[in-house]
Specification:
By secondary structure, the chain is an alpha+beta fold. It contains 17 helices and 20 strands. The chain has helices at about 5-15, 25-35, 35-50, 65-70, 75-85, 110, 130-135, 150-160, 170-190, 195, 210-220, 240-245, 255, 270-280, 300-310, 320-325, 355-375; strands spanning about 25, 55, 60-65, 85-90, 100-105, 120-125, 140-145, 165, 205, 225-230, 235-240, 260, 285-290, 295-300, 330-335, 335-340, 380-390, 395-405, 410-420, 425-435. The longest helix is centred in the middle third of the chain and has 20 residues, at about 170-190. The relative contact order is 0.07.
C-alpha cells in the first residue's frame, strides 16, 4: 500500500481544482506550490493515473474531465431500483450512494453476519432478522419476491439513511440484472470519449475575420486549422492552410472557409472520431454543445495518440469480441501470417456451425494485425470481400492464412484463406483493404 505524504495530497487537490483544459507543467507547479520539481513530477503522474490530467502531443499536460465522467458511470442504489423494476421504500437520502458490492443472504443469520459489511447491498427475502441485522450494520437491503416489509424495518432504514428496495423479481433474476448492469457500466468506463482528450483552450476566427487574421493566428500559435464562429459562438465553418493558400490577405474568412463542417460532441467516442477522420480525410473536428456552440477541438494526431495509448492500458472488462479473440493465436511462418483456433459454443450460429460473422471477425483481426506488423501502422477496414465455402461444426479446428499483397501510404491489400487443417480443406477466402489511420 502506497501512502501519500500531505505534500502530494495538497498538490493533487490543487490539480483537481484546476479548470478543464488548463495546462500543467512540472516547473510551474513546483514554483507555484513551493516544492521540488521531482515532487511536482510525481504528483502529476499520480493525477494522470487517477484520470485527472492527460498529456497530449504538441499541447502538453492538461486538466481533463474524465474523472467526473467515470464517477457518473458508477451504479447507485437509485439505479439498482430502476434496473430491478423495484420501489425505493425508505432511505431516499442514501439512494445516490454508489453500489460497491452485493451479496445474497440465502443462509442463517449466524452465517450471513460474516459477510454483511457496511455499504454492501444485501439481497434477501422475507428474513426480518437478516434485514434488521444488515440495517443496524450499515448495509442497505434489497428484498426480492415482493414481500411486504415490517414498518420497524422501514423506520430503522430511515433512521440510518440506508436504502430499502423491494422488487417482485426472484433472487436469481435480481442478481443477474444487477450483474448485467455492472458489466455494462464497466464497459462504458473503458470507452474513450472526446471529452477525455479534447482541447478546451481553442483559438478561433469569426465571420468578420480576414485571411490576414488567419496568418496572425498561425504566427502566434503555429497551428493551421481553426473553427469559425458566428456572433453567438456557434460553429459555422472551419478554415485551414489549404483554404487560404494564394488568397489575398484582405479576403473575408467567410468566403474561403469550409461551411457546415462535421462536428462532434463530448460524448462521441474517440473510435467514432477516428473513423470519421480516416474516411473523410479530416485533420480537425470542432467539439460542440447541443446548440452547436464551440466547446473545444479534437485533432487527428491527438486521436491517433489516444488510441495508441489505450491499447497499452489494461481493460476493466472484456466485451464479447475480446473474449472470442482471446481464444485464438496468431503467428508467422515464412512470409505468411496464421491465425489458429477451435470452434467453441460462443462462435456458433443458430444451425450449430461456425458463424460467418465470427469468421469475418477473425479475417478482419488477422488483416489488421498483418497491416500493423508489416507497415508499423494501425489500420481500419475500408473494403472487405468474403466467400464462404464450407461450414465448420463445434470442436473443429481452423487456420486462417494471410499475406500483404500491396502496401502504400494510404493502406494495404491483404489476401486470406481459411482452412480446416493447415493448407488443407478450404473453408473460406477473403480480401481486405486496410486504410492506415495515419494515412
Amino acid at each position: 500500500m502506497r501512502v501519500l505524504a500531505p505534500k502530494y495530497l495538497d498538490l493533487l487537490r490543487h490539480i483537481e481544482n484546476l479548470s478543464e483544459g488548463e495546462k500543467i507543467s512540472v516547473r510551474r507547479l513546483a514554483r507555484d506550490k513551493g516544492v521540488s520539481q521531482g515532487t511536482a513530477y510525481r504528483a502529476i503522474k499520480m493525477a494522470e493515473e487517477q484520470g485527472l490530467v492527460s498529456t497530449i502531443a504538441r499541447v502538453g499536460t492538461i486538466r481533463i474531465r474524465g474523472e467526473a465522467r467515470r464517477k457518473n458511470q458508477e451504479l447507485t442504489y437509485k439505479d439498482v431500483a430502476r434496473i430491478v423494476e423495484g420501489e425505493l421504500l425508505a432511505g431516499n437520502e442514501g439512494s445516490g450512494k454508489t453500489l460497491k458490492k452485493f451479496l445474497i443472504a440465502a443462509m442463517e443469520l449466524s452465517a450471513a453476519a460474516n459477510y454483511i459489511k457496511p455499504g454492501n447491498l444485501v439481497i434477501v427475502g422475507n428474513r426480518e432478522d437478516i434485514q434488521e441485522y444488515a440495517l443496524k450494520n450499515g448495509a442497505p437491503i434489497l428484498i426480492t419476491g415482493g414481500f411486504e416489509i415490517n414498518q420497524f424495518i422501514l423506520d430503522l432504514a430511515e433512521k440510518n439513511n440506508l436504502p430499502v428496495i423491494v422488487t417482485s423479481y426472484d433472487t436469481f433474476s435480481t442478481a443477474a440484472e444487477i450483474n448485467r448492469a455492472i458489466f455494462e457500466r464497466r464497459i462504458q468506463k473503458r470507452i474513450l470519449l472526446v471529452d477525455d482528450i479534447m482541447i478546451a483552450d481553442v483559438f478561433s476566427l469569426s465571420l468578420d475575420s480576414t485571411v490576414q487574421d488567419w496568418y496572425q493566428l498561425l504566427h502566434n500559435t503555429h497551428h493551421t486549422r481553426f473553427p469559425v464562429l458566428n456572433k453567438s459562438g456557434r460553429v459555422v465553418g472551419v478554415v485551414t492552410g489549404r483554404d487560404v493558400a494564394e488568397e489575398p490577405e484582405s479576403k473575408s474568412i467567410a468566403r474561403v472557409m469550409t461551411r457546415e463542417p462535421i462536428t462532434v460532441t463530448p460524448r462521441t467516442s474517440v473510435a467514432t472520431v477516428s473513423h470519421i477522420m480516416v474516411w473523410k480525410g479530416i485533420e480537425l473536428l470542432p467539439v460542440v454543445r447541443e446548440n452547436h456552440q464551440l466547446l473545444g477541438i479534437v485533432t487527428r494526431q491527438d486521436v491517433m495518440q489516444a488510441l495508441h495509448q489505450l491499447q497499452k492500458q489494461p481493460h476493466l472488462e472484456a466485451g464479447l469480441e475480446d473474449n472470442i479473440l482471446r481464444s485464438i493465436n496468431i503467428y508467422r511462418r515464412d512470409n505468411r501470417f496464421i491465425l489458429s483456433g477451435r470452434v467453441t459454443g460462443y462462435m456458433l450460429n443458430r444451425l450449430g456451425v461456425l458463424s460467418t460473422g465470427i469468421l469475418n471477425l477473425f479475417f478482419t483481426h488477422l488483416a489488421e494485425e498483418i497491416m500493423q506488423s508489416e507497415n508499423q501502422e494501425r489500420g481500419e477496414m475500408e473494403n472487405f470481400n468474403f466467400y464462404a465455402l464450407k461450414p465448420l461444426p463445434l470442436g473443429s479446428n481452423f487456420f486462417l492464412e494471410g499475406e500483404l499483397l500491396e502496401s502504400g501510404r494510404q493502406g494495404g491489400l491483404v489476401a486470406m484463406q481459411a482452412f480446416n487443417q493447415p493448407g488443407e480443406d478450404l473453408i473460406a477466402t477473403a480480401t481486405a483493404w486496410i486504410k492506415t489511420l495515419g494515412g
